[in-house]
Amino acid sequence: MKQCRTAIALLLIFFAFACNNNQNKENAMNPSDVKKTTTDDSNVENKDQTIKKGSLQPESIVKEILTTSPRYTELTNGLNERIINNGGLSFEILMEKSPDQSQINEYSYSETYDFTLYEMYPDRRLSIARFSFNPNNKKLYEFDAANDQLKPIEFDKNLLLKYEALIK
Question: What mean pLDDT is reported for the chain?
Answer without folding.
Answer: 76
